[in-house]
Write a structure and sequence with these properties.
alpha+beta, Beta-Lactamase, 25 strands, about 35% helix, binds adenosine-5'-diphosphate
Length: about 700
C-alpha cells in the first residue's frame, strides 16, 4: 500500500500493540460504541485508522478479509505490514507530508497502487484518505478498495475491444452482416457486410439499439431468443428485419454471447446472412408446386381408372381417387386393410374362369409381398350388391425416399414399409366386345360345319365314284383340283374344330370325358399316325415298358399330343428327328411327356407370350409356316383341365422341347398348375417358359 506512512508522529514504538479491550485510544473509546463498530464492519470497503506514527489503531471486518490478518494481528502494527517492501520508503515520506497538510482526498486514481496480503501476494488497490481529529490527536482513516476483479475486467474489456478492432478489417471482408452488441443491445461493431445488407453506414449504426434500428421480428418473440442465449450461450434461427430503404429482409442469424472469466456478459456477436431471395424463390416454387399439385389432383380424380395407394403387408389404403368407389361400389375407408374391406362388404374376387382367388393370389396383396410390377392381370369382382365387374389390375411397387415420410400423406407409414400403386380398370365394355367376338366365332364355326361337311363329302364322293368307274373319267387337272379341295376343306374343318373348342372353353363348356387309360400306347398311336405325313422327319418314341395309367380324356389328350408333334414337324421345315419321350417324373407320381425337335425354335423375347390366344412367333411367319396360334392355347387349357402342366424350353435356331406333365392315377391334381391366362405380361424371358403364362 502506498498510503502515506505518518511521520513526525508522537513517540510510540512501532508495532506496540494497543490493548485488545480498547480498540481506540483512551479519549475516543466513548465514541466507538458497539453499534458504530458494527456499522464499520458492514461497509464494503476495507477501513483502517492510522495514527501519526503510522500504527494501525482500527480495522473493520472488510480490512481483515482484504489483507488476510485478524484484527488482533493488525492493531498496533505499523502500516509497513500492509505494504510491498519497495513502496515502504516512499510511503513514509508521503505520510509525513499528509500529516502536515491533512485533507480529504482519494488516492490511486490513475496511479497503480498495490497492497500486500498476509500471504505475501500483492493486489491493486484504490484508497481514499480522510483526517480524523480526536482531541489534539490526528489520525487518518483510509478506505481501501481491492481492485483486483475490476482491473481484470478492465483488462479483458480492453483486450476484447483491441481484438475487435484488429478483427474489424477481417470482418469487413466477410459477406455476411456481422454485428457486435453490448449488454444493452447497443451496436459496438457493424461491418461492411452489415452496411451493404441494411443500408446503414457504420457511423450511423454504432451506439444504436440494433433491434430497434432494424425493427427485428423474432420468431416466438424476443424473450425466447434471449432466454435461449442466456441458457445455451448461442442461438440460431431466422429473423425478419427492415433495411434502411424499407425492404423486408429475411436473415439466417447466428448469435453468441461473449462472457468474461466471471461469466459476466461482455457482448453479443451476431452474424446475419441474407436469405430473402432464397425464401422468395422457395415461396414461388411452393406456389408453382401447389399449382401443379392441384392440376394433378384434378387429373387424378378425373381418371376413369381406379387408382389406390396401399401400404404395408395388409395393403392399408393411403390414397384413392373417386373411381375407386365406382369400382368397388362402396367406400374403402383410408387406413383400412384390403382384406378387411373386402370382408366387410362381402366382396369376392375371382379369376376369369370364376375360381375365387385366395388372398395370396390377389394382385393388391401380391404386389406388396413380391415387390415387382404386375401388369394387366384379369380379375372378376363380385361387389357388395352382387353385381359382377371384370377388371384389369396393374400394380407397381413404389420406393419412398425417407424424406417423403415426413410429408402429410405418408407420415403414417413406418420406415421400410412397402408401398404400392394399384390400378383397377373396369373392362366391362371390352368384355362385352370380347363376348360378341366369341359369339361370332362360335356362330361362324357352327355355320361353317354344315357346308364344310358337304364340301368334304362331295369332293370325296366325286373322287371315289369316278375311281370306281361311275360317270365319265376325270381329266388330270380335274383330279388335282378335287384333291386340292379335299386338302383345303380338311384344313378348314380342323380350324373350325379349334374355333369351336375355343368358344366352348370360353363359355366353360369344354367338358372332359375322363377314364383311366395307359398313356404309352396313346402316344405311340399318335406318332404312328403322323409319321406317314412327312418323309423328312423321323419320329422316335422312347417309352418304358410298364403301363402309365392316368385319368384322361383319350380323345383330348390325343388332340394335345397331335398338336405338339405336328408343331415339332411343322416348325422344323428342314426336316430331322423328332423325339418323343415318356417317363415317370420325380417321385414317380406323375408322367412327363416331352416332344423335342431341332427346328426354328422360338425367339426369346416372345417366349412369354407363346401359348396365348392367336399368338404366333415372328419367325414362324417369316418362314411362311401357316398356323392360327390356337392349338397351343387349347392344348394348355386341356392339360390344365387334366390337373397337369404344359411348358416349353426353346432356343431360336436350335429347336424346342415341349413338356406335358400329368398326374398318374390315384394322385391329386398338381399344385400350381392353375396358371394365369395370357393376361399377365412377364417382363423378361427366362429360358424355361410356361406356355402362355
Ligand atoms: P400354330 O397354328 O400357329 O402352329 P400353335 O398354337 O400350335 O399355333 O403354336 C403357337 C405358336 O407357337 C406357333 O405359331 C409358333 O410360332 C410357336 N410354336 C409352337 N410350336 C413350336 C415349335 N415346335 N417350334 C417352334 N415354334 C413353335
Amino acid at each position: 500500500m502506498t498510503a502515506h506512512d505518518p511521520q513526525g508522529a508522537p513517540e510510540q514504538t512501532p508495532g506496540q500493540p494497543v490493548p485488545a479491550s480498547s480498540t481506540f485510544p483512551p479519549g475516543i473509546a466513548d465514541v466507538t460504541s458497539v453499534l458504530f463498530r458494527q456499522f464499520l464492519d458492514l461497509l464494503p470497503d476495507a477501513l483502517i485508522v492510522v495514527d501519526e506514527q503510522g500504527h494501525l489503531v482500527q480495522a473493520n471486518a472488510q480490512a481483515t478479509a482484504v489483507f488476510g490478518y485478524s484484527r488482533e494481528e493488525l492493531l498496533g502494527q505499523t502500516l509497513d505490514l500492509l505494504l510491498p517492501e519497495r513502496f515502504r520508503e516512499i510511503h513514509r515520506r508521503h505520510a509525513a507530508q499528509y500529516f502536515r497538510v491533512p485533507r480529504l482526498r482519494p488516492m490511486g486514481i490513475g496511479l497503480h497502487l498495490f497492497a500486500r496480503h498476509k500471504d505475501g501476494g500483492e493486489f491493486p488497490v484504490e484508497i481514499s484518505l480522510s483526517p480524523l481529529h480526536v482531541g489534539d490527536r490526528l489520525y487518518v482513516i483510509a478506505a481501501v478498495r481491492d481492485m483486483t476483479a475490476q482491473r481484470r475486467a478492465e483488462r479483458e474489456r480492453t483486450l476484447l475491444l483491441q481484438n475487435l478492432s484488429v478483427q474489424g478489417e477481417l470482418l469487413n471482408q466477410a459477406y455476411d452482416a456481422i454485428i457486435v452488441r453490448d449488454s444493452l443491445d447497443r451496436i459496438l461493431l457493424w461491418n461492411r457486410g452489415a452496411e451493404r445488407l441494411y443500408g446503414w453506414p457504420a457511423q450511423e449504426a454504432l451506439g444504436r439499439i440494433s433491434t430497434r434500428l432494424l425493427r427485428t421480428d423474432f420468431p416466438g418473440g424476443e424473450g425466447a431468443v434471449r432466454t435461449a442465449l442466456e441458457r445455451d450461450g448461442q442461438w440460431e434461427g431466422e429473423l425478419t428485419q427492415l433495411a434502411r430503404d424499407g425492404r423486408l429482409l429475411v436473415v439466417e442469424s447466428r448469435q453468441a454471447l461473449v462472457r468474461d472469466q466471471q461469466g459476466q456478459v461482455l457482448a453479443t456477436l451476431e452474424i446475419n446472412r441474407d436469405i430473402s431471395e432464397r425464401r422468395q424463390r422457395e415461396r414461388e416454387a411452393r406456389a408453382m408446386l401447389a399449382g401443379h399439385l392441384s392440376l394433378l389432383e384434378q387429373l387424378f380424380e378425373a381418371l376413369p381408372l381406379a387408382v389406390a395407394l396401399v401400404a404395408g403387408a395388409t395393403a392399408r389404403l393411403v390414397l384413392a381417387n373417386q373411381a375407386v368407389r365406382r369400382v368397388w361400389g362402396v367406400d374403402w375407408p383410408f387406413g383400412q386393410p384390403f382384406l378387411e374391406f373386402l370382408q366387410a362388404h362381402r366382396i369376392i374376387i375371382s379369376d376369369m374362369r370364376g375360381k375365387t382367388l385366395a388372398p395370396e393370389e390377389l394382385v393388391t396383396l401380391r404386389v406388396l409381398r413380391e415387390q415387382r410390377a404386375i401388369a394387366l392381370y384379369q380379375e372378376q369382382i363380385r361387389r357388395a350388391d352382387g353385381s359382377p365387374l371384370p377388371v384389369l389390375v396393374s400394380a407397381l411397387p413404389l420406393h419412398v425416399p425417407p424424406e417423403a415420410l415426413q410429408g402429410e400423406l405418408l407420415r403414417q407409414l413406418a420406415p421400410g414399409e412397402p408401398l404400392a400403386l394399384v390400378i383397377h380398370q373396369d373392362v366391362t365394355p371390352l368384355k362385352e366386345a370380347e363376348e360378341l367376338k366369341d359369339e361370332f366365332i362360335s356362330i361362324a364355326a357352327h355355320e361353317l360345319r354344315t357346308p364344310l361337311a358337304a364340301l368334304t363329302g362331295y369332293a370325296e364322293m366325286l373322287l371315289r365314284q369316278t375311281e370306281r368307274g361311275h360317270g365319265p373319267p376325270l381329266a388330270p387337272w380335274q383330279r388335282e383340283a378335287l384333291e386340292e379341295i379335299q386338302q383345303g376343306t380338311k384344313r378348314l374343318a380342323g380350324l373350325t374344330e379349334e374355333l369351336l373348342d375355343l368358344s366352348r372353353l370360353q363359355a366353360g363348356r369344354l367338358q372332359l370325358q375322363r377314364l383311366p387309360a395307359d398313356i404309352v400306347p396313346l402316344v405311340r398311336q399318335v406318332v404312328r399316325r403322323l409319321q406317314p405325313t412327312s418323309e423328312r422327319h423321323q419320329l422316335e418314341v422312347q417309352a418304358p415298358a410298364e403301363p402309365l395309367v392316368a385319368l384322361i380324356d383319350p380323345h383330348r389328350l390325343e388332340q394335345v399330343l397331335t398338336n405338339l408333334v405336328e408343331n415339332a414337324m411343322k416348325y422344323s421345315p428342314q426336316g430331322g428327328p423328332v423325339q418323343v419321350r415318356i417317363g415317370r417324373e420325380g417321385d414317380g407320381q406323375a408322367v412327363l411327356i416331352s416332344v423335342q425337335d431341332h427346328g426354328i425354335g422360338i425367339p426369346r423375347h416372345q417366349q412369354g407370350q407363346i401359348g396365348g390366344r392367336f399368338m404366333r412367333a415372328e419367325n414362324a411367319r417369316a418362314w411362311g409356316i401357316e398356323g392360327t396360334g390356337l392349338g397351343l392355347y387349347l392344348a394348355r387349357a386341356l392339360v390344365e383341365q387334366h390337373g397337369g402342366r404344359l411348358w416349353f424350353e426353346s432356343e431360336e435356331g436350335q429347336g424346342s422341347t415341349f413338356f406335358v406333365r400329368l398326374p398318374l392315377l390315384g394322385e391329386e391334381s398338381e399344385e400350381g398348375c392353375e396358371l394365369p391366362e395370357d393376361e399377365e405380361t412377364t417382363p423378361a424371358a427366362p429360358p424355361v417358359r410356361e406356355a402362355g403364362a
